[in-house]
Amino acid sequence: MNRLIYFFLIIFVWCVQTQRLGAQNPLIIPQTLSGDTFNLEIQQGTTQFYSGINTPTYGINGVLLAPTLIFNKWDTVTLNVKNSLKGNGNSTTIHWHGLHLPAKYDGGPHQLILQNSTWSPKFRVLNNAGTFWYHPHGHGKTDLHVAKGIAGLIIIRDSAEANLNLPRNYGTDDFPVIVQSKAFDVLHQIAISTEEDTAILVNGVVNPYLNAPSQVIRLRLLNGSSMRSYNFGFTGNKEFSLIATDGGLLDSSVKLTRVRLSPGERVEILLDLQGMQGQSIFLNSFSSEFPNGIYGAKTVKSMMGGTIPDYNLNPLNGLDFGILKINVQTQTSNPVTTIPKYLVPLIRRTIFNVSRNLNFAPDSMMDPTSQVSGPFNINGAHFDMEVVNIKTYLNNSEKWRITNNTAIAHPFHIHDVQFDILNVNGGSVPAYQRGKKDVVLVMPQQYVEFVTKFENFADDSVPFMYHCHLLHHEDDGMMGSFLVVDTTTAGLFNKTKHESLIIYPNPASEYVGIKSDFDLSDAEILVINSVGKEYYKGKCVQNILSIANFPKGVYFIRIKQNKNLITKKIIVQ
Ligand code: C2O
Ligand code: CU
Ligand code: CU
């Protein structure tokens, strides 16, 4: 079908649906899970976003989205994640976005959860109180799995936060607000890789309303969309107070009328609803204020005139639109009525011993469309499961300069750490980017510099990721990996040797052969599964390794010879 006709069909269905079923729907507040063991089952089913219309969706412990996980700082938590998805090739991963934890438990593309199997990471919660989230991260499948519905919040609590007079009764004065845009095709299936994300959902609900008490309430905003940024604000430009960014509380609250969130970013805000009982107020996106280049603005256009095909057909682009209607009700019995000025002491990192430059570029500099649509690369490379792009050392403090040489804004995200933004294109840092961050939107033809430190967790074979959080770009390979290596056990990574070493057959079931153009006779071999459990350790005997006793799954084979260390993936089936 012609793309244009197809697009209008979608708009048509959208209009009919919103007119016919335009009634407001109560906001669903995801259930919470707490304790030290969390059983999470990835499932599928159908959801009626529009009444009477069944849309196939994915969720965790349900058919859409996921429970809110409540963690306490310093607790050790075990998460048993079972993949019960059906269909072909529906392996996935679950990543704990924003959390500081060992790479092998991070849930990046390397920690595959095969169908009908359970992955059980266990780690100590080291982050400060804040709002984090979890979502799939399978290579090439992140957009599909997130858009289908797999995403949930993580709320971390700690004593510093508990000492503040803040709303923290979940679902009463402290509300999760997961904002996602979705595209539904003519058959009401969730569509990805289209510019037709014309439905805005909060916590999986279209046209949502929230009944909130007339007092200070806390909203935990997450932009869980695949591509779209929002310029959040309220009816009548009502002021709100920003209290937390991606990594947790700020040192003091900041009064604002707008906060921009690109995909992956979170903020916590306080909204004072005192004296407004009986009234309604809207959380909106003032997308008309977005400059060219942000997905969600009226235009995303390069200097050469390149645009994203069909982008201008989406009525939401550049529009100011309502996201969540808030109906103000009676006060609760113990309302919070003031907004604290001072929050928690924060130390800003500004000192570093290593500088790195990461550059975003379209694969084809000459093609105007590719400057806005990609595919994009980072320092000339696309993501490769078996290549480590950056090696850093435990306890390095580093300044990263992220330069965007494309015509679209990209939200840059790094795993493992939180960072402090030093400057935005050499200039000052806006208030909503002054706290701890793990995602930052880098505007076209600009750069952002941040400082971070790689502490606590080193692993000489399992990498962390950095990538663009526009999920379509990420899936297209706008991602790289970094190893945090402990200098006392450091191995030397050699790309040429890496490429010349071949494991075959792969997938395999009885044995694998190891072929290389260099001598492996004194090499040490270590085979571990995705959570680091050892299955083989020893010499490379005749370049053949028996895997007949290994359970089915994904393994990493680490070959160490003198200073060379090579890691390859094998699938046992
Ligand atoms: Cu929210 Cu690497 O992801
Ligand atoms: Cu992440
Ligand atoms: Cu991008």
Topology of this structure?
Layout: H1 3-20, E1 25-26, E2 32-33, E3 37-50, E4 53-60, E5 68-72, E6 76-83, E7 95-97, E8 118-119, E9 122-124, E10 130-135, H2 142-147, E11 152-157, H3 159-162, E12 174-184, E13 190-191, E14 199-202, E15 205-206, E16 208-213, E17 216-223, E18 230-234, E19 240-245, E20 248-256, E21 259-261, E22 266-272, E23 280-286, E24 320-329, E25 354-362, H4 370-373, E26 376-378, E27 390-393, E28 397-404, E29 410-414, E30 420-424, E31 439-442, E32 447-453, E33 464-468, H5 471-475, E34 479-485, H6 495-500, E35 502-504, E36 511-515, E37 524-529, E38 534-539, E39 544-546, E40 553-561, E41 564-572
Parallel strand pairs: 1-16, 2-5, 3-6, 5-11, 12-17, 16-24, 25-28, 27-34
Antiparallel strand pairs: 3-4, 6-8, 6-9, 7-10, 10-11, 12-13, 12-14, 14-15, 17-22, 18-21, 18-23, 19-20, 19-22, 23-24, 25-26, 28-32, 29-31, 29-33, 30-32, 33-34, 35-36, 36-39, 37-38, 37-40, 40-41
